[in-house]
Every structure is written in C-alpha cells, then in structure tokens.
Known about the structure:
By secondary structure, this protein is α+β, with helices and mostly antiparallel strands. The protein is built from five helices and four strands, in the order H-H-E-E-E-H-E-H-H. It has a single domain, classed as 3-Layer(aba) Sandwich (Endonuclease, Chain A), CATH 3.40.960.10. Strands 1-2-3-4 form a four-stranded mixed β-sheet, sandwiched between helices. A hairpin with a 2-residue loop joins strand 1 and strand 2 (about 55-60). The two termini are about 15 Å apart.
Amino acid sequence: MTLRPLKRVTNQTSNNAIDLRRNATHPEQRLRSILCRRQLGGLKFRRQNPIEPFIIDFYCPSVNLAIELDGESHEGRRAYDADRESFLRNLGVRVIRVTNDDVLNNLDGVAEMVLREATRQPLEPSPSPSLKGRGI
C-alpha cells in the first residue's frame, strides 16, 4: 500500500523551497531548461517541490517521479539520501538520481533516461503467497 503525500507543508519547508528556486545551481538550471514548459514528453515537472519533510529537486506528479540531482552537497550523505528515497518510495514516488556531471556533460542522455523512466509502467505487486490459489 502506498501512502499519499501530506497536503500541508510547513512554512519553513515552503520558504526553504522558495529559496532553493531563487538560488538554483548551474546543473539545476540546465536540467530545468529541458523539463520546463512540458518540453519532455508533455510532462509537467515542478522544481524544488516540497513533500514534507523533504524538498524534491524536480517532481512530476502525473507519474509520481522525482529527479534528484547529486552534486557536492550529497557527498557523505548516503544514509540520509537512502532514508529519504525509502520515505518517498513508501509514498509511491519513484526516484531517479542524476549526477551534476551527467547534466553538464550529457544533457541529452539525461533527458532520454528521464523520459524512459517517466513512461515506464510501474511493476504490479505480486500477490502474497496466502492469496495464491484463491483466485485473487
């Protein structure tokens, strides 16, 4: 069962998201250039989108896809990033991670990967063993 993201976002998280939008890094600006105005497969992406208690770099609500850019600020934070990713997956959000270097050096390849992931059908959960054989 997937949970729905909380509708309410705290003022602090909202203000942090606004600050992040105003101070976008160069890789974020480059990625935004291909994600804005529904240029990629007609999908709408939100940048610095709060899903309490986190702020997602880019989020496409229609396909529940989060794109996280990994740069210098993520060094030494593997455990934190893993917990965050697990939290989002429990909400039904698919997370893909892209390095800043990939955005800067292979933007077309990143665009292809994002579009491929966005159009990929989510896997259906297999029935639990107790339901097998019951026609369910």
